[in-house]
Amino acid sequence: MLRIKAQCAGAASQKRPKGSAGAGHLFPERLRVQPGKGANAIGKAPKSFFAVTSGTTRRIVRLGSPGIPSILGQSSGVLGKTGMALYNRQLTSPTNTDHLLMTDTPSGAKPIQFDAASLNSREAYEQALREALAHFQSLPPKASEVDRARVNLDIAQARTGLGETEQAWELARHAFDVFIQAEAWQDAVEACEVMYQTGEPAAAVALSHGVWLGVTYPIAPQTTITMLNYIIDETPEKSDGAAVAAAAAHYIASIRASDEDVEDLTFLTRNMLARVAERHSAVTTQDQLDSWMVKLELRDPAVFLPRMGKVLDIIVMDQWWIDRDALRSRLPVN
């Protein structure tokens, strides 16, 4: 099955440089993207950028937590003391807070951007569409609605790359409903990402649904971080919403990543926090970053997670497609 992964798909591959100076400091001297080292995962890439990969297996992830029951709208009981202790260690431990991003890129450099056309991707999208359509036709009559929706999501991804965004939206929107009914949360968030990538009028609403589900349910942390990064890209530079999204991303990486991925993912999310701090308040030193996080209350998930929920409410207004109260009532904690 061919999957088309969005701009942060390679984020986990970004490694912290060995031998970094200044161990124990959270903030780097410069926060610019270094060409050739996962720049698209940090800088803002246009929505037309995709990395096209093919395979026969959907993403298989280790779900590192039972979910975050108090997320986005409730303010108590966030994963209990164990989760909180792990989160606090990620913020304060000298071994986990070297530099956010070591780079020699000049401080005035612009973020690197990519365009799908430069990747000769149209042929890849056309091939993806042919394969996905053939796959759909080959499904047995007894194939489940979820299986059919997954193939339709592949079709939608390919159509998005070809500019057929209206058709892609309809396919992804129907797939989303199927996944919600089946409680296939990872698939539902991926459907939200496809809808967001279409750029259709309700793309921001789809993004908000993906963020809410991605933080509430224990899906792949890489997916949730990607969705939160979109929120950062969509918010004004001085907006507190971006800061809250970055803090939420770091929290998710800290509690949900597998042992194999936690170092890479928290390194990425610390980059996200630093990038937001720089653009939000011109933060350039460790002391400034510490003060900034305290001022915006970004160290306590019991505070910033409900704020994330308020950000989503502002974006969605009265256009929620899901009954969040009903979903919360069925969480294991309840």
Description:
- This protein is mostly helical.
- It has one domain.
- 54% of the residues lie in helices and 2% in strands.
- The chain contains 13 helices and two strands.
- The protein has a two-stranded antiparallel ribbon with strand order 1-2.
- Residues 1-119 have low confidence and may be disordered.
Shape: globular
- Structural class of the helix and strand makeup? mainly alpha
Strands, count: 2
Distance between the termini: 37 Å
Total domain count = 1
> What is the radius of gyration computed over CA atoms, rounded to a whole number of angstroms?
20 Å
- Mean pLDDT across the residues is 73
Describe the sheet with the most strands. 2 strands, antiparallel
Q: Order of strands across the widest beta sheet? A: 1-2
Determine the number of helices (DSSP H or I, runs of at least 4 residues). 13
- Which stretches are low in confidence, meaning pLDDT under 50 for 5 or more residues running? 1-119
Proportion of β residues? under 5%
Order of helices and strands: EHEHHHHHHHHHHHH
Helix content, binned percent: 40-55%
